Amino acid sequence: MADNSGCEKRPEIQETGSGLMPEVSVVIPVYNNAGTLPLALDSALSQEGSLEVIVVDDGSRDEIETVMERYTADPRVCYVKNPKNLGAAGSRNRGVAMARGQYVAFLDSDDCWAPGKLKKQLRLLEDTGSVLCCTGRELMTPEGKLTGRVIGVSAVISYRDLLRHNSINCSSVVVKREAALEFPMEHEDSHEDYIAWLKILGKYGPAAGINEPLLRYRLSAGGKSGNKLKSARMTFLVYRYMGFGKVKAAACFLSYALHGVWKYARAFLLS
Question: What is the Cα–Cα distance from 267 to 271, expressed in whole angstroms?
Fold first, then answer.
């Protein structure tokens, strides 16, 4: 399969309001997740409204191409393969650079969305004038079974709130494309999405949150957050990459750690 299967079938870019410009560009980076990609992709394609889905293959060695052959007839789907491994951050950035929608939505290839997610977020973005919107999430087992354990979000998330703990899950985010282009994800040795959200909120003001589990988030020991000590180091690096001195970075990290413990404890206690 060519590395741009489906991309050549996308309608030419036209003026907004023509009906051909997608309102939302969904960016799905994938690396060796052929087993979970269909659930993610189908949950995106089932959303209401005008959208395109950009699947960025970061050098997978499994059956991703076979999976993507199922979607060649859908002009909303664009499949590209990176010439070399770029990592999750680089793959998302490539997807954002290709995006044509007014908004970009991120979705990891092992997560999925509840019906109506994008419609609710777009309505809230319009009502609040916010640049970024996120949602709550329900945890899934590695096998994809819903656990009933929910992690919520506040209706308003300020830059100060975000410094204390990152309540914005990447797979729940819808953000204006201009902001995503202005602040690409960098420093993959840390939590690159957290850095991007901090920069966006620092310039454009609070994010809007929908306290509903519209994201279904798959737990995985192999992910960046699976190793808690590694994740802690990466979080501390976030504050250093933001330009904070060691004392301020340590204070932010302590707050982050305490909120993290409470967040997951509360999800389990309420389940």
Answer: 6
